[in-house]
Write a structure and sequence with these properties.
It catalyses: 2 GTP = 3',3'-c-di-GMP + 2 diphosphate. The chain is of the alpha+beta class. Helices cover 36% and strands 27% of the residues.
Length: 425
């Protein structure tokens, strides 16, 4: 028999066609939404600008002088660099979070936007260095900020005019001087998961200069889902769908064999189950109990009991009545023993209960409760009460030995007048 080709099967599979169409529409909507929406923005609050501090080259023995002024959510730095034995610079440190000392995870953002004006007394051109200081719990040095990872980028400002600058975070890198100060670290790529400060510093020109930098606004922007992550997700969904469809097609070709195997397995399980359960009472039989309790060790107790005068019941009332009595005994017993106890039909009118983690005394209490319950609840067709005799033994050496001891105790109970519970000593 010729099977349809995959593309023919695809056309015939209306459900999958509908699913593929829906998936296409969802993919298109997500791509458009990612381009036009999903905007994520974090703007440094005005309260954080009021906590701005100045940091100059005097921390390294330099001579540069600066003046910091903050007002109305702006920070203004006036700096006069002085050449000395160290690199000359002035800078401001603006907390990223208004809660001082608490960082912000900026790893989901793509771009830094900063609005500032730049003036130099002699109209000298220079860069402005931007640092995102990420606290990674490194040991503190004499300069606390040097222990934070410096992620650096630079802009070339316009002289005189206020301008906005956009810096992709992908352009930030760790400068070589920071790597030199932290040789113990093996990873030197830019990190933004706990940024505490943004540092804005004069440029890397060695020429002495007189600069005024006024910072008005700092914001970070990005997407709730990056384009790369979205495309990766869409590709994974489509690949998964294609694989699932391929598996479905393959399943169609082997369905007959699979169903046959399942039927054979089901029949095998049913036969195994029937072999372990008593047909009449649906309780476990000896084989089922042996399989269940195969790995049980000491700390268990055995309760062995049988129906008193059961032969007379069969003789006087018939085997149907006897069968009904056995079924009721199993029903009442199974619903009134602990979860760690296992009931089985031992043979004829004899039953066994094996209780895990149960002492002989505890098993005696369980048996006494069952004895009273059976006597009270189960009656013959003419209303007469039914009784059972119980023998108890605690597993010390082996289950087989305990069963023998319980059988002896059961026999003692029979000889003592029946309808009683005997604990093997």
């Amino acid at each position: 028999m010729l099977h349809p080709l995959p593309n023919q099967a695809f056309r015939k599979d209306k459900k999958f066609n509908k699913f593929a169409l829906a998936l296409t529409m969802i993919s298109f909507v997500l791509i458009v939404w990612q381009e036009l929406g999903m905007n994520l923005q974090y703007r440094i609050p005005q309260a954080a600008f009021s906590k701005t501090i100045a940091l100059n080259d005097d921390v390294n023995g330099g001579l540069s002088r600066s003046k910091l002024k903050t007002s109305n959510g702006n920070s203004s730095l006036t700096c006069e660099t002085v050449q000395s034995d160290t690199f000359s610079f002035c800078s401001v440190l603006i907390p990223v979070n208004e809660r001082l000392g608490q960082g912000v995870d900026l790893s989901r953002y793509d771009q830094l936007s900063i609005t500032l004006s730049y003036q130099e007394k002699e109209q000298l051109r220079d860069t402005i260095l931007i640092y995102l200081l990420n606290d990674e719990g490194l040991p503190k040095s004499r300069n606390t900020f040097e222990s934070m990872r410096a992620n650096q980028a630079a802009i070339i400002p316009n002289l005189g005019n206020k301008s906005s600058y956009q810096l992709p975070l992908s352009q930030f890198s760790v400068p070589s001087w920071w790597m030199y100060h932290h040789p113990e670290l093996k990873q030197h790529s830019a990190t933004f998961d706990n940024v505490k400060y943004i540092q804005i510093a004069t440029g890397d020109s060695f020429i002495a200069k007189n600069v005024t930098i006024e910072i008005e606004d700092i914001a970070f922007s990005g997407k709730w889902i990056s384009k790369l992550d979205l495309y990766r997700f869409i590709v994974i969904v489509w690949l998964s769908s294609a694989i699932l469809y391929g598996i479905t097609i393959a399943h169609r070709h082997i369905r007959t064999l699979t169903q046959s195997a399942q039927r054979l397995h089901s029949e095998k399980q049913n036969y195994l189950k029937l072999a372990q359960y008593d047909h009449l009472t649906k309780a476990l039989n000896r084989r089922g109990l042996d399989h269940l309790c195969r790995n049980l060790g000491s700390g268990c107790s055995v309760i062995l009991f049988d129906v008193d005068n059961f032969k007379s019941v069969n003789d006087q009332y018939g085997h149907d009545e006897g069968d009904r009595i056995l079924v009721e005994i199993v029903e009442y017993t199974s619903t009134n023993i602990e979860k760690n106890c296992h009931l089985a039909r031992w043979g004829g009118e004899e039953f066994i209960v094996i209780c895990e983690q149960t002492t002989g005394t505890q098993a005696y209490a369980i048996a006494e409760r069952l004895r009273g319950l059976i006597e009270q609840k189960i009656h013959l067709i003419d209303g007469q009460s039914l009784t059972c005799t119980f023998g108890i033994a605690e597993v010390v050496q082996s289950q087989d030995q305990a069963i023998k001891q319980a059988d002896v105790a059961l026999l003692q109970g029979k000889n003592s007048g029946k309808n009683c519970v005997i604990l093997s000593q």
